[in-house]
Amino acid sequence: MHTVTSVNVNGLRAAATKGFVPWLAGTDADVVCLQEVRAEPGQLPDEVREPDGWYTVHAPAAAKGRAGVSLYTRREPDRVQVGFGSAEFDGSGRYVEADLPGVTVASLYLPSGEVGTERQEEKERFMAEFLPYLVALRERSAADGREVLVCGDWNIAHQEADLKNWKANRKKSGFLPEERGWLTDVLDGAHGGYVDVVRALHPGVEGPYSWWSYRGRAFDNDAGWRIDYQMATPGLAARAVKASVERAESYDRRWSDHAPVTVTFDS
To answer: Is residue 222 left, alpha or beta, with left meaning phi > 0 and alpha meaning psi from -120 to 50?
Structure first.
């Protein structure tokens, strides 16, 4: 595994008609993690469901047209797991992981939430269950001499540098103090023990943002959020040499409201 890309496709069937297929054909990535696929495998065109040169695993949500995560790998995984042992969330299309030589790679789509609604309560329940799993995964992998990389749409901007209009969003889901504190725990060596790879390679700068609303001129003004992360165990994070957001050249060239986040590691 040398290069890994993660992207929320905002509906894979739609993305496939807007530019995802040529993007996938042209990428140098060894692993591609997708979120918000919103389709059953049988609903996807052949060149998207099982493209040449890739092994794929699709984990759709039981609720039709919602969520869904996928993994594309150049080599066949040694093991695949859908969900993280949660009675509530394993059928919700929000987590899939695969074992490759020396590393477990996962695609995560954390619930988005909305303050004062059941959606926010769902997000909080997911977070409460998922952090202990992340800790156990890291510990189990370390005992086996393996690294971990959890990629995806975490739907939380961690710091003020991670969204353009942070002052206006302090009471909005995605930038709430308790959500940001939870992400701090993911990154705290005494708790989760993971490293935000993109931030580690881009310290002290605003962004690089990975999501822009379709409303207004957010994309043109780069008024975005950085909510798509690659979270790695420290040993793997130390091997990261380059990270970039594959921002479209113009608004009309986008095939999602998110942009692919790509990290290259020393092999």
So the answer is: left
Distance separating alpha carbons of residues 32 and 246, to the nearest angstrom: 13
Residues 81-89 have a mean pLDDT of 98
Residues annotated as part of the active site: 109, 153, 258
Secondary structure class of 121 (helix, strand, coil): helix
Q: How far apart are the first and last CA of the chain?
A: 7
**In DSSP terms, which residues pair with 153 in a beta bridge?**
109, 228
8 is in an annotated binding site: yes
257 among annotated binding-site residues: yes
Return the residue matching tokens 């023990």.
193
Q: Is 155 annotated as a binding residue?
A: yes
Q: 3-265 maps to which CATH number?
A: 3.60.10.10
The tens digit of pLDDT for each residue in 133-183 reads: 999 999 999 999 999 999 999 999 999 999 998 888 899 999 999 999 999
Question: How many Å apart are CA 267 and CA 254, to the nearest integer?
Answer: 31
Residue 102 has pLDDT above 70, yes or no: yes
The CA-atom distances, in angstroms, between 223 and each of 155, 202, 206, 227, 231 are 16, 18, 11, 13, 23
* pTM of the complete model beyond 0.90: yes
Residue 221 annotated in ligand binding: no
Q: What tokens were used for 54?
A: 């890739």
Sketch the domain layout of the chain as residue ranges. 3-265
